[in-house]
Amino acid sequence: MGLCLLPLQEVENQFYNLRASLDSRLKQELRQLFLYFQKHWMIDVPLQMWNFQDTPHRTNNICEAFHSRLNRRIQRSHSNIWSFINCLIGEECRFQHLYSQINAGT
Q1: Which end of the chain has a smaller Cβ tally under 10 Å, C or N?
Q2: Residues 41 and 19 in one domain
Q3: Residues near 3 by Cβ (< 8 Å), separated by ≥ 6?
Q4: What is the CB neighbour count within 10 angstroms for residue 41?
Q5: What is the domain count for the chain?
């Protein structure tokens, strides 16, 4: 379900719309899933904790974001060790520069 991508005020309504739109056979097959989701993710855990519609990053895992960036920088699925090391050196320089800017207040 992509409910975490919806505006916060629409999540609950769209959850019920999704459940209502299913045919009876499919609704019965997914009954346990919907009950679990409703109890755990809509009652026990506040919606604000798992909804990230307004966040600039669409991942809640900073490691995934870094891995994605590193893959884009390497640009090959099986690069040699030297390309990989050069990419890591470039990333270190980039982060040192960002760190210096943050410390300088710029």
Answers
A1: C
A2: yes
A3: 11, 14, 15, 51
A4: 19
A5: 2
CA angle 23, 28, 30 (to 5 degrees): 95
Instruction: Dihedral sign for Cα 90, 95, 98, 99, please.
Output: negative
| CA of residue 9 relative to chain centroid, distance | 19
Question: Per-residue pLDDT tens for 20-60?
Answer: 999 999 999 999 999 999 999 999 999 888 888 877 766 66
34 and 67 together in one domain: no
Any idea what DSSP says for residue 52? -
Residue 15's pLDDT band (cuts 50, 70, 90): very high
